[in-house]
Design brief:
Blueprint: H1 3-29, H2 34-67, H3 71-85
Helix pairs in contact: 1-2, 2-3
């Protein structure tokens, strides 16, 4: 894993962790609507999907460099990842 990716993933994971704790507090306090809870948990799912996208792109770039793939192929793969993960 590239150093920059590792830092980004850790930062995003900490953010997700904080968000999950916040939703937990919302549930504990009980003064929240189901719609609000669903909205917040959906935001958590989205954040995790973004983490997966970062990891997948890093994997492609790392393997492409190791295996000598063309820059064109790498760019095509990264574009495909963006399309599928949005």
């Amino acid at each position: 894993m590239q150093k920059q990716t590792k830092s980004e993933v850790l930062r995003r994971l900490k953010s997700v962790e904080g968000h999950v704790r916040g939703v937990g507090k919302m549930v504990e306090e009980g003064d929240v609507t189901y719609a609000d809870l669903v909205q917040q948990t959906n935001a958590i799912f989205s954040a995790i999907r973004r983490i997966n996208t970062v990891l997948l792109k890093d994997f492609v770039e790392e393997r492409a460099e190791r295996d000598g793939a063309s820059e064109e192929l790498v760019n095509d793969l990264l574009k495909a990842i963006d399309r599928v993960t949005k």
